[in-house]
Amino acid sequence: MSQAKVDRNKELKRNRKKIQKRQKMELYAAYAVTAVICCGIMGFIAYSGYGVYEKQQKKAEQEAVIPTTQVDLTALMNFSTDDDSSSKE
Fold first, then answer.
1. What DSSP designation does 64 have?
2. Which domain holds residue 14?
């Protein structure tokens, strides 16, 4: 082996702990970035899904409105009061 190769191997052996520590940190950083990206994608999917759900709920509410009719009950009230007054006479 050449002297340069021997010196390089000695240097690598001397700095092995530092190199391994840096590699671990790079790996953990990659894991963290991947986790953040995955959380962002999941959040976007959840937000979009919720928006679609809300639109469907509003549409269903608008379609499910039961038509109502107002009834004037004054004639019925007058009928019952008229009946009581006629029986007294």
1. T
2. 3-88
How far apart, in whole angstroms, are the C-alpha atoms of residue 31 and residue 19? 18
Q: Give the amino acid at 28.
A: Y
Q: To the nearest 5 percent, what fractions of the chain are helix, strand and coil?
A: 85, 0, 15
For the whole prediction, is pTM greater than 0.85? no
Report the amino acid identity of residue 65. V
> How many separate domains does the chain show?
1
d(CA 8, CA 16): 12
User: Residue 51: which of 59, 41, 40 has the closest Cα?
Assistant: 59
* Distance between CA atoms of residues 43 and 70, nearest Å: 47
Residues of the chain with pLDDT under 70: 1, 65, 80-89
